[in-house]
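Pipeline run #58 for the internal structure catalog. This entry was flagged by the ingest filter as a single-chain record with no existing model, so it goes straight to prediction. Upstream metadata was stripped on purpose; only the residue string is passed forward. Reviewer on rotation: M.T. Logging verbosity set to normal.
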Amino acid sequence: MEADDLVERAIVQLLLTKNTDEIETLADDLGAMGDRRAVGPLASRLADSRVHDDPDLEEAVCSSLVRLGAMDRRGNLNYAFVDPSRLDPQSSDAVRRLSSVIPRRFFPAS
């Protein structure tokens, strides 16, 4: 299977699954794959209460976003999205669209 197919399959699974262990594994996998198409789907998971109520799950999603260049780590379990100008247009657009449903703590004070 081609890498593109693996990324697309992992993104679809991430968006559809309700299983927290699977969310964590898929987030880790997508971060390791390094494909920026995963930024929007990963960011969308931060709007999910299952993720932001579970420190391990939040850590997996945010760590992957750090690996993809969309977030900075600012200490233990303290993450923030980078300035949109540092993102590719697709990632920047996804984060902007999701900003109203993602907890405010992930956006640095402007």
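catalog note: The chain is about 55% helix and 5% strand.
catalog note: Helices lie at 3-16, 20-33, 39-45, 49-52, 55-67, 89-98.
status: ready for reviewer M.T.
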